[in-house]
Amino acid sequence: MLQAGYAVQAPNYSETVVFGEEPICLQSLFRKQPVEQLDAGESLFFESDPARHLFEVVEGVLRIFKIMADGRRVITGFLYSGDLVGVSLKNHYLYSAEAVTPVKLRRFARKAFDEAVSGSPELRPQLFARLCDEMAAAQDQMVLLSCKNAEERLCSFLLQQLRRKREQERSASVIDLPMTRLDIADYLGLTIETISRTMTKLTNKGVVSSAGRHSIRIAKPGTLAHLAGDGDECHDGNSIVVAFDSTGRRH
To answer: CB under 8 Å, gap of 24 or more: what pairs does 74-79 form?
Structure first.
């Protein structure tokens, strides 16, 4: 169980970093920082903790979430290799971050980050663009939760994973989903039972089929896009395999 006010004890890194040349991208600020590791299930920071550092995910998957007053967990996103964690204009973290898988990451002092961005005409627009991307993602999530039914939400999630994978590998056929079905349910605002029923419905429609204990085959990506409400942007000739980790239960 998460404990409010608990903070991960970090090594005492210097607040300033000297670079050999002007960094040209936000990720370059992190390159000289040591790599740290988190075990699956280990917390990186908690909501409302002082935002003293930013982090770059080097390897693995993080989930970011909030805990409601009644104890319910709301997952607001999953972060992957190359993503930055803790970018905010606030002095405290706006959410909690926890490792889904074993994670490797680098940290950078918030004060040094702010100074580097303020002094670089190349980095300022990059930070602004990243904040705009986060706002757009938040708006997309609001639309998903407020306007889409269970089937549309799940299809949108699977389609989102497909897009992310194909940015790295255009002809990708396997998408790894290391998060549990309970994680997916908490991200989509559904119950795990609804996730299971909806998956069965998609199977009966021929959109997906079983490909092993923890995997499904998306036989009709175009139909998946249509059911997600995003139009027919994929051809059904390209089947996709989605691998699932073990499922959780909602109590």
So the answer is: 74/186, 74/189, 75/183, 75/186, 75/187, 76/138, 76/141, 76/187, 77/137, 77/141, 77/187, 78/179, 78/183, 78/187
Question: Rounded distance, CA 98 to CA 45, Å?
Answer: 7
Q: Could you give the CA distance from residue 161 to residue 128 in angstroms, rounded to a whole number?
A: 25
Q: 217 CB contacts (<8 Å, ≥6 apart)?
A: 208, 209, 210, 211, 239, 240, 241, 242
pTM over 0.85? The answer is no
Residue-wise pLDDT tens digits, 232-249: 455 566 565 666 655 444
Q: Which domains does the chain have, with CATH numbers?
A: 26-145 (2.60.120.10), 150-244 (1.10.10.10)
Q: What Rg, from alpha-carbon coordinates, does the chain have?
A: 19
- In residues, how long is the chain? 251
Give the strand order in the sheet containing 215-218: 174-177, 240-244, 215-218, 208-210
- In the three-class reduction of DSSP (H, G, I as helix; E, B as strand; rest coil), residue 19 is classed as coil
Tokens standing for residue 117: 């961005």
